[in-house]
Amino acid sequence: MTRKSTSLVSSFLNLPEKQIDDLNEEQILKVLSESIAAMLESQPDLLLSSLYRMDVSEKKVSMVLESHSEEDIPYGLARLVLERQRTALNTRLKFPQKKIDDPEADF
Fold this sequence. Notes:
- The protein is mainly alpha-helical.
- The chain has a domain at about 30-95.
- It is built from six helices and no strands.
- α1 packs across α6 (about 75-95), α3 crosses α4 and α3 crosses α6.
């Protein structure tokens, strides 16, 4: 995984980047799906809100929720999160933004 996508996933999982750096994709999906399963159980509204803020396709989320068995839903959502983070990263790499040279813009 690239450094930037690692950062995005680590922030979603609330884990240090160092922990994520040492994992392969399948391990990341496992950790991510465990986190999603816990959120589905205790904070489903927060999970859906997080998916919305990450701009994960609502249509794809609905498809996962409708077509997967209850135990497969977290893994399906984890794949969507990882897919969306990759898409976002590729877009940022393809269309880099110039840094704004305005001290008031830093926050």
